[in-house]
Structures are given as C-alpha cells and as structure tokens.
Amino acid sequence: MNKNIIFGKVFKGLGLSSKMGFPTINIYNESKTESGMYFVHHKEFGKGYMSVTPDVAEIHFLNEILFNNDFIKCEIINKISYPKAGVYKNHLSPTDIYYAGVKYIKELSKKSVSEMRKSIYDTNLYKK
Description:
Blueprint lengths: L4 E7 L4 H4 L5 E4 L7 E7 L3 E7 L3 E6 L9 E10 L13 H15 L4 H8 L8
C-alpha cells in the first residue's frame, strides 16, 4: 500500500467544524494511514491539512471547495510532528500544537507543492 496516499469513503459529520468556519471532508481511513496531522495535496482542490485517527480522517483544504463525491484520494506531502520535548513538557496542549500547525501550513501554502516537499523533506515520513 502506498503510504504517501490517503483515501477513503466520505461520510457526513456533525458539521461542528463548518459552524466554526472550518469546513472539512470526513473520510473513513481505508488506506490505514498512521494517526497524526499531515500536509496533503489534491489534484483539483490544492493544498490542505488533515487530522487522522486509526478509523477516520478530517481533511481541511486551504481553498473554498465544493465537494459532493462519495470517495476522495489525496497525496500526503508530509507528516507534521509533535515537538521533541513532548506535548506537556513544553507547556503546549494538543490544541496549541494544532493551531501552530495550521499557521505553519498557511505559510507553507504560499509555496508550490514541490517547494513544500523540499522545505520539509528531511522529516520522518520520507525516511521510513
């Protein structure tokens, strides 16, 4: 299985993220992608980020999109890692890390996908 692709059947969530201004595409994690937060790219919708659990994933694209399909497949650009000191040792909550990741993603999104890969190529996703 290609670890640089996430795919799955789309399902309707509760709409909580949309109500807060962050619409998502919810999918079943059929590709069995490891849990974590990732940069992703879709050929039609562009760059985004996603949060993955063993069973499901939420994908947030940086552009406004209209999506009505039953299935989606995205390229994983890279995994966003937790700080090396640990979550609470450096007084960061998971929410702090999430929003720091979103800010980082927005900065990286100004680059092309190939430039993004070069900027973050030395992280753990490509070393396995």
